[in-house]
Amino acid sequence: MNDPAPIGPPEVLAALGASFRLHEHPDVASPVEVCAALGVPLERTVKTLAFVTPEDRLLLAALPGHARLRYGALARAAGVRRGDLSPADAGRLARAGMRPGGVCPVSADRAAVVVFDESVGSLGRVHCGSGRPDSSIEIEVAELIAAVPTAATAPIADLPADEPACRAVE
């Protein structure tokens, strides 16, 4: 008998009573593609990068869509060595109810370590991954963060000095 597939982020959020909207769109893999598909500003997206530790623990880093991750800062915030971070593969994401291109800071993996960049909390209403590359979640960032009660907040992102731009995807 096969184990049932883990529930995805929308189901986790619904079970918590969070208020959000699910937006369907063509498969996308980057925040720029999301903002082009949905017509939302890039600075109103939260991208989530997924890693695994040597103990196979999922580590999720949530930062503004236009920011770059500071890997050393993430490792320190998560209490691991920088060299111990490996990108999560499709199989590891599937065990958390997600697929590549749709990673979300909210997951069915209760043991996941989630670190939000300190700037995310002031973003207001945002779009983030839904667990699938063909849909995104629109949610107030306060509800998104509240859905991960064990989340840490740390300065893990480098924000660009100039205004982000959402370019149409060719």
From TrEMBL:
Domain YbaK/aminoacyl-tRNA synthetase-associated: 25-145
Example GO molecular function: aminoacyl-tRNA deacylase activity
Gene3D superfamilies, per database record: YbaK/aminoacyl-tRNA synthetase-associated domain (3.90.960.10)
UniProt-listed InterPro entries: YbaK/aa-tRNA-synt-asso_dom_sf, YbaK/aa-tRNA-synth-assoc-dom
Domain of life assignment: Bacteria
Name assigned to this protein: Aminoacyl-tRNA deacylase
Organism: Streptomyces sp. R21
